[in-house]
């Protein structure tokens, strides 16, 4: 699903690209029980300022359920 959603254009699991390393994202939110909801919302609506000045564009083609699955996947890394 991650590949299908074009996320890999800007994110890799352990290689720096435009967006933050997904492993770093997982580490940053470790122990934050609201992280899955927060990240699912951010995946669909986009945002900026957490990792730098480069914005994450909104991904409205990702359904709410898919965004939750993606967030859970990222947090499991
Ligand atoms: C055009 C490039 C681009 C694409 C495509 C993209 N991202 Fe991002 N993403 C970014 C950038 C840049 C950031 C850092 C935003 C910030 O600093 O707030 C980011 C941040 C994130 C974060 C961390 C959010 C936070 O608040 O800590 C997650 C999770 C994430 N992206 C998941 C995804 C997923 C899942 C997809 C595919 C559906 C995706 N991204 C597609 C560029 C992208």
UniProtKB/TrEMBL annotation:
Residues bound to heme c: 7, 11, 56
Domain Cytochrome c positions: 1-77
Mod. after translation: Binds 1 heme c group covalently per subunit.
Keyword Iron recorded: yes
Keywords: Electron transport, Heme, Iron, Metal-binding, Transport
Presence of the UniProt keyword Transmembrane in the record: no
InterPro entries referenced in this protein's UniProt entry, alphabetically: Cyt_c-like_dom, Cyt_c-like_dom_sf, Cyt_c_ID
Gene3D superfamilies: Cytochrome c-like domain
GO MF annotations, alphabetized: electron transfer activity; heme binding; iron ion binding
Name of this chain's protein: C-type cytochrome
Species this protein is from: Ramlibacter rhizophilus
